[in-house]
What does this fold into?
Amino acid sequence: MRYRIVTYGCQMNVHESEKLAGELESMGMTACKDETERADVIVFNTCCIRDNAERRALGNIGVVKAEKKRDPDLIIAVCGCMTQQEGMAEVIKERYPYVDIVLGTRNIFKLPEEIEKVRAARARIKKRSDKRYRAFDTAYPEDYLAADENAPVARTSYPNAWVNIIYGCNNFCTYCIVPYVRGRELSRPMSAVVDEVRRAVDEGYGEITLLGQNVNSYGHDLTGGESFEKLLREVDRIEGKFRVRFMTSHPKDLTDGVIAAMAESDKICSNIHLPVQSGSDKVLKDMNRRYTRDRYFSLIRKLREAMPDIGITTDVMVGFPTESEEDFADTMDLVRRVRFSNAFTFIYSPRKGTPAAAMPQIPYAVKRERIGELIKLQNSVTKELSEDYVGGVFEVLAEDVSPKHEGMLCGRTESGRLATFPGEASRVGEFIKVRVTEARSASLFGVAED
Ligand code: 5AD
Ligand code: SF4
It folds into this structure.
């Protein structure tokens, strides 16, 4: 039996697809070699953070209808954030009648049993003794953490291993759907996280990325005084040659202790993704972000004082309902001053059921204009900062063969900068010293020194 998983959205989803794969492989299935190979099971792991993510997923679920018609034995499952949206399970039930299984973000481990039930019911239908079985489960089970600890994972991102540390989000930023589709914060026990990191390092993974919607609030729901700072210090003590990144950090919860732990560690990269969203205090307040632009500037100062080479990336949103021209100018000003190594820029997209979706909206043309200006500014900053790397030698973990340049490898510096350099595919997974010879906007180019 073969399976195909189609993943949308963030790293959390990429990792949850590895868990879905783990479940399917525990049933003896193997992954399709490519998109053309016939699958027995197709899983859509969906995202709903913005309207376009949702439309893309729904569009592709629509497309498999034809495949299902040709191949009635095919089993189709829809998982991930989209399934947890209010009313979405019903929409799928009615509009996509060929979907067999809908499982929410905390029900991944039920996939094998639901597949078995669908198949058993189909076998009975063939004998005309039963009706079709469809599974819809988007509940938040009490025993989720226990089920998750025992679940298999089929990693697909070597030499990077994703490791969850906290699930869910308690913040309710007014634009964001995540707290509604991923439930309340739930930290994994520290010993479980440390064990998983140790195992991945022993298996040869050179880079560990700790994952959570807000990693900085790790441990507040545990009882032994756990915190993100303590977790970083524990992970840093694990023996072996590896590096650690984490995402995502929330500026309101980033403590001096975490900054100190990063600076004092061997393994934690000088790299942070710290979404700012807006440079205007008024908009930040309306977004319920619970920090000011001054607090953000002070965090940037502290990070750079502690780690002068740190790479700082961010998320910025334009077109939030209350964003005036002046507020947008504040965002441009912040982006100009901070000098992010990279910024992920988004046009605000109203999400049903969130407070901001009920406010009067800004015309799309204005949003487009603003994002255009923002991207132009950040591109020029990225290019300038890239030029600072030219002539230097940096340790890069070879992550993959370059998708665009034949005979080349790509990977990142400790600060998170993408680097491309000539090398054999057999060196993927090695730490390589790279001398940077050229900076293009998206990547540094260089040669291996060893
Ligand atoms: N519209 C646009 N962007 C959003 N993000 C979250 N919700 C929305 C939305 N409704 C962005 C934020 C967040 C990133 C993961 O996605 O910038 O940091
Ligand atoms: Fe969404 Fe805010 Fe939670 Fe991030 S911290 S997932 S933006 S609600």
